[in-house]
Amino acid sequence: MNTLHLVICKYLPIEFKRLAGFVLVSFFLIPPLAAQEVIFSRLTIDDGLSSNFVHCVWQSKNGYLWVGTENGLQRYDGNAFISANRDYKKNSLPAFPVRQILESKKGVVWLRLGNYFGKFDTGRMSFIKADIAYPKGAESSEPGRLTEDIKGNILLIVPGKDILAYNPKHNSFEHDPSVVSVPDDFGISDVAADPVTGLYYLCGSAGFAIYDPVKRVFYNAGYNPLRVPFLEKTKGLKGFSSIYLSKQEGIWLVKQQKFSVKVFLYDFKSERLRPKSIVRDLSSSDFTLKGFAAAGKRTWIYGAGLLNFYDNTYHNFVMAGHNFMDYYGIQYNSVHQVYEDRDRNVWIASDNGLYKGRLRTITSGTDMPRN
To answer: Count of domains in the chain?
Structure first.
């Protein structure tokens, strides 16, 4: 395990950040609270990982860390990795790439294996695949991610088509208007279920919308009788790919274009929509958003050539990794997930292994953890 130290100077121009020596010298010259430090350790195939290409990570209630890699699922106890694949047993977990791990409110663990989804028993190491009743014309579509709403419904996004709900009686993801209903021409791309109100915030090729599952009403810019400020402010905006609800900041909106990622923040308190700049890692040839996460009391945004966290004091994103600094940075081309465990460690699943770290604020001669 190699310990990596990363110093991020937030007020320096980006071109100076490329000069490792200048960054280290400047660290001692900038004012208090002008720098962040992330101390990481890295796990690779040398430590027992079945692949350095890590898609996801999740911690079970008994403290084990479950790691989804390109070569299957593994359990980590802090010392050794154990494969969860048991090809010789009934309902064994196949050694497919594990792209997502989701624990429901009822304690059911869901896995995505390629384009397959199913329930995983962590004790028996068994897997039961669920069927998917794809909408007409979407049989060859690649499904999106799993999510859960306030009532415990497990939802599967079929980009451009529909949001399917899991039916335990049929062991199948199906169109269920009693859970959520999206018009065919909306072109759904992402959904965020509000854990407080139960409302669904949606984005798609046609713009933004809010679905009320109690009233079963679909609100958008064209039908907004309640004059919801969010729909008023996003009126005319189309083609967004991601939406994320943050307890701290508000609603994050992302528009993915060929060579750029545009990020906006809607603030519930001020009812304002503002663009936010993110810091791209130019050493990566790709630049694609993969998701948001809450970890270390911060909001993270990550993807290919992208690993930032949002600083609520200075209201901007800060780069949390530098490929060009061999010793002081994280080596990755793409980050697939950011996850916080119960000990408040921040785990980074990347295409170059699994990183574990903590964020701390550095003042002049003082270490002040801000976890």
So the answer is: 1
Beta strand pairing status for 288-295 and 109-113? Answer: unpaired
For residue 320, the model assigns a pLDDT of 83
Q: What is d(CA 216, CA 213) in angstroms, rounded to the nearest whole number? A: 5
252 occurs within a structural domain: no
pLDDT in tens, 152-167: 999 999 999 999 999 9
Report helix, strand or coil for 231. helix
Enclosing domain of residue 369: 1-50+277-371
Q: Give the three-state DSSP class for 168.
A: coil
User: Measured between alpha carbons, how far is 134 from 17 in angstroms, rounded to an integer?
Assistant: 47
Residue 208 in any domain: the answer is no
Do 289 and 261 contact (CB within 8 A), yes or no?
A: yes
Q: In this predicted model, what pLDDT tens digit does every residue of 32-86 receive, in sequence order? A: 444 556 677 899 999 999 999 999 999 999 999 999 999 999 999 999 999 998 6
306, part of any domain: yes
Tell me the backbone φ, ψ of residue 23, rounded to 5 degrees. -65, -45
Cα separation values, 353 from 49, 68, 250, 279, 356, Å: 8, 11, 31, 22, 10
310 found inside a domain: yes
